[in-house]
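From the shared-data thread, chain only:
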Amino acid sequence: INIVLDTVPPTVAITSVDDEAFFATPSVNIAGTANDANLSACYLNGQLLNTSNGRFAQNLELAEGSNALVLNAADKAGNHTVIDLNVNIDSVPPVIVVTSPVNNAFIDANVINVSGIVLDDNLNTFKGNNADISFEGSTFSYPLDLSEGRNVLKLEATDKSGNTSTVSFVVHRT
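Structure, as tokens:
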């Protein structure tokens, strides 16, 4: 009879997804490793994972919003390692609404104030003609130098999932 005292839990790592990661599509691959000489099983949100040579991979269809994931690896001695993480699905691009100036406005000024709202709970970047635009809450307002004649302004908002919205409009300086 050989008795082995095992008090060490499995070593577990999720290698494909970081905690609080954002994805634009609901299909997410959860992959990683679970190492223990006496590994018994790995579960993801209570469902048994297939492991091969200490590696696992499972494709999940997640809901829009925050998704809690729990990975539990156990060895034959009953030692457990649990990893909790959240994965965010955001498939909706930001919404940009320009309140001033109106498209194709004719303006007799060197500088105008561009203002409006940009809506997205997970907004990452907001740019006007490739320059960062600061915003407070969902409201933005910034000065724009106009050249004589036709001026094209391109606003671009990108959220943490990489969804992008673009609004372009023209202002004429007279």
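The chain has no helices and 18 strands.
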